[in-house]
Amino acid sequence: MSSIDHQVSRRRTFAIISHPDAGKTTLTEKLLLFGGAIQMAGAVKAKKEQRGARSDFMKIEQDRGISVSSAVMTFEFEDNIFNLLDTPGHEDFSEDTYRVLTAVDSAVMVIDAAKGIEAQTRKLFEVCRLRDVPITTFINKLDRETRDFFELLDQIEQDLALDVTPVTWPIGSGRDFRGCFDLVNDQVLFMEKGGNVVKEAIQIKGLDDPKLDELVPDYLVAQLREDVEMVRQMCPPFDIESYREGHLTPVFFGSAINNFGVRELLRGIAENAPTPRPQEAATRTVEASETKVSGFVFKVQANIDPNHRDRIAFIRLCSGHFRRGMKLKHVRAGKQMAVHNPMLFFANERDIAEEAWPGDIIGIPNHGTLRIGDTLTEGEDLRFRGVPAFAPELLQKVRLDDPLKGKHLQRALEQLAEEGASQVFKPMMGADWIVGVVGQLQFEVLKERISAEYGIKVHFEQTPAYAARWVMCDDPLELKKFRDTNQSALFEDHDKTLVFIARNAWHLETAQRDWPKCRFEATREQNMVVAG
Ligand code: G4P
User: Fold this and answer.
1) Which domain covers residue 324, as residue numbers?
2) Domain containing residue 494: CATH number
3) Ligand 1 centre from 219 Cα, in Å?
4) Which range scores top for mean pLDDT: 55-59, 88-92, 324-328, 382-386?
5) Are residues 346 and 366 in the same domain?
């Protein structure tokens, strides 16, 4: 196996999707425990050899106050490298989450055993389904009172239209919960309450093995035998193709807080979850094992220091062997950029990345050149598809307290839009910019940031704006006519794409009816414009 094939085969890049409180944070912590403090061989070496570089980086970080949250956590377990991408946890369902899901190859869906599937789980699942992201299910909190296990499986099957195949099955539940039977490997796993002790599995020869009767009290064995028989009758056997196509989910039961079932889940991901997948670009499909480096920006994180406009762009590598110092082409700008200080992210720290492989996430500090959706390559004009922008649901006019700061405000709004914090629309007529967000809270956050980072006082005002739609039209003459007739409702977003802001539902419907050659899109891929 070539070096790149080997590195690709070791990598699993995934996210956890769940409703708040189901146990995502707890599960993440336990997963990281398995990864321990182990770091990737290349990076460990880098650390030893590059003390200088590391402290350089720390200094840059201190000087400029770059702050990077745990957006990505990389860890190694049993010779596999896992890149766990964090999905933002707040209730305001944000575009950020969608974008993170464009950068993973699979997801783990955590369900609270007492609650079943909840609203946020369902929404996130829908995003995964749109992108055919395979899902592994972890049913959590088995140490508590739970719903009936068959009912839970039934709910996944009915609500999400997914086949379910349990990989483990609980022995007892609630206060009686002892552990799980591993249906694939014929072993019994016992839970140790509290702490992080993981007991070794006990091998048995199937459910009829008398050893099982010695290990588990009679009434629980009887129940287990009955349940497993039913599972085997009702659920399809595990089919890896069906899982990878997103039709079937393997189900693990556990208790994250007791670190129970987590190792099995991790092994399940290692065994079945896809390695870095081929990525669709506008011109062709890029295979992970191709030798030339390519990747795309799926997240930009701002600097909190108001004196500097530094940001970290998070790049998902799609192909090739990346090495520090490489010159990559920033396709949108048509320019080369040397990547001197790429970062890798571990459980509790980050470090300069000496190298990285497909599926890995590197952070590139920059001054705003890199935007969400941008592609980096070793020269080819690739544009990866599928980093979406959504028409914001809430639209308000932004007003300056000091009208002389117009130019400054424009810069602030554009920079914040490039980060993906909001969307801004510049009017074709008049001076009032409109800002669009997904959750109401974001207006407050923006106001604060514009004040703290740019020293500009603004307030947001209601405006008759019902919906924003990107306008596309294949007929330039028709588009010109449309522009000329609708000026007062037309805006440009930060990529200079034409946007129609309808005053109300009727206004939107009329425009759609009167201009059948124009498309009014509620989503759009980021940065479709390529320079040169
Ligand atoms: P989230 O990130 O999905 O929002 O969930 P988080 O891990 O924060 O877990 C939510 C609550 O559920 C926490 O309790 C956590 O301790 C608890 N929890 C997680 N896994 C299990 C489990 O397997 N069994 C039981 N019984 N509880 C579990 P909390 O009271 O909100 O916080 P804390 O004070 O315990 O930290």
Assistant:
1) 279-377
2) 3.30.70.3280
3) 30
4) 324-328
5) yes
Residues at CB less than 6 angstroms from ligand 1: 18, 20-26, 140-141, 143-144, 255-257
Q: What is the DSSP letter of 274?
A: P
Same-domain pairing of 105 and 248: yes
- pLDDT at residue 296 is higher than 50: yes
Q: Is 363 annotated as a binding residue?
A: no
Q: Which residues of 476-492 are buried (b: 16+ CB within 10 A; e: fewer)?
A: eeebeebeeebeebbbe
Nearest CA to ligand 1 atom 36: 26
Question: Cα–Cα distance between 126 and 146 in angstroms, integer?
Answer: 25
The average confidence (pLDDT) of the chain is 86
Its pTM stands at: 0.81
In a domain, 395, yes or no: yes
Q: Supply the pLDDT for residue 179.
A: 93
Helix (H) or strand (E) holding 228: helix 218-234
The tens digit of pLDDT for each residue in 462-480 reads 999 999 999 999 999 999 9
18 labelled as ligand-binding? yes
Is residue 161 in a domain?
Answer: yes
What residue's CA is closest to ligand 1, atom 7?
23
Which atom of ligand 1 is least distant from the CA of 18?
Answer: 3
Residue 304 has pLDDT above 70, yes or no: no
CATH assignment of the domain containing 309: 3.40.50.300
Q: 3-state class of 438 per DSSP?
A: coil
The answer to whether residues 73 and 347 touch, using CB atoms and an 8 Å cutoff, is yes
Among the three residues 330, 351, 377, which one is the final residue of a domain in this structure? Answer: 377
pLDDT at residue 93, as a whole number: 52
Tell me if 86 is assigned to a ligand binding site: yes
In a domain, 531, yes or no: no
Residue 532 inside a domain? The answer is no
Residue 421 has pLDDT above 80, yes or no: no
- What is the rounded distance in angstroms from the CA atom of residue 95 to the CA atom of residue 106? 18
If asked whether residues 266 and 285 sit together in one domain, one would say no
